[in-house]
Write a structure and sequence with these properties.
The structure is a single chain. The protein has 249 residues and is α/β, with parallel strands linked by helices. It has one domain: 3-Layer(aba) Sandwich (Rossmann fold). Helix content is 40%, strand content 13%. It has a 7-stranded mixed sheet with strand order 3-2-1-4-5-7-6, with helices on both faces. Helix 1 runs parallel beside helix 3 and helix 6 runs antiparallel to helix 8.
Length: 249
């Protein structure tokens, strides 16, 4: 990517931790910002929470991979972690995968259930996410960050809601500056909740890095965007929106 132009960096932001529920959320929702901050010299880490593999998945969990054309014996999450490695490399950021399990492996047995009440036995998930993020913070230089990023949880997916709760608590208790991205592709869907906060228009180098990164998520593009070309069109036309607004660069 070309050198970052003036204004790509954010004032006082040299260490960034972006907390992504799934292996694609950060790139789809805030990839341009992440690429721009990295190009401007910030240390940017993307930690994805729900990435654990489960041997021999069944039921709805298995359907989440077979409906994308993958055979039942494929390690779906290992494949997705590999996609994420390629995406974070394209953004120029560091990636980290936590081994927590996605909702279909935690008692959510249908697509509709993912957007409904928290399942019995899953109430403690935000605490587990928070504890894992505390461990990640201790690994960073000086044990801190200048900007914490996470989801607004638009669309109401339970994994996004759990991550927002954990990230909000972490920011509050540690006094960390926090901004939440508008969850993409949920903001593109008919009847979606409008994004909260202020839009940030990416510069061209950031946008191209974002599109290249998102193209790495080959297993998701048909399901989420109707293909790579449609993804590129959608993301090029969509500003990234953050709540609270980011500091002026």
């Amino acid at each position: 990517m070309n050198a970052a132009p003036p204004g790509a960096a954010l004032p006082g932001v040299a260490r960034v931790l972006a907390v992504s529920p799934h292996l694609d959320d950060a790139a789809f929702s805030a990839g341009a910002l992440l690429a721009g901050l990295a190009a401007a010299g910030a240390d940017v880490r993307v930690v994805t929470v729900f990435t654990g593999s489960v041997p021999d998945p069944t039921g709805f969990a298995l359907a989440c991979q077979t409906d994308k054309g993958l055979a039942p014996d494929v390690d779906y999450m290992a494949l997705r972690r590999g996609e994420d490695d390629a995406a974070t490399a394209a953004l120029g950021v560091r990636g980290r995968h936590l081994p927590l399990l996605e909702a279909p492996h935690r008692g959510y047995t249908s697509a509709a259930a993912l957007f409904g009440p928290v399942a019995a036995g899953d109430e403690g998930c935000p605490r587990l996410v928070r504890e894992a993020l505390e461990d990640v913070l201790q690994e960073g230089p000086g044990g801190g960050v200048d900007l914490l990023l996470g989801p607004q949880a638009l669309g109401d997916h339970v994994d996004h809601r759990h991550v927002r709760e954990a990230v909000d608590a972490l920011a509050r208790d540690r006094g960390l500056p926090l901004a939440r991205w508008a969850d993409t592709p949920y903001v593109l869907r008919p009847g979606a909740h409008p994004p909260r906060g202020a839009p940030r228009r990416p510069w061209e180098g950031e946008l191209e890095a974002k599109v290249a990164a998102c193209a790495a998520y080959a297993t998701q593009l048909g399901f989420q965007f109707d293909g790579e070309a449609a993804m590129a069109r959608a993301l090029r036309g969509l500003p990234e929106t953050f709540d609270p607004p980011l500091p002026a660069g």
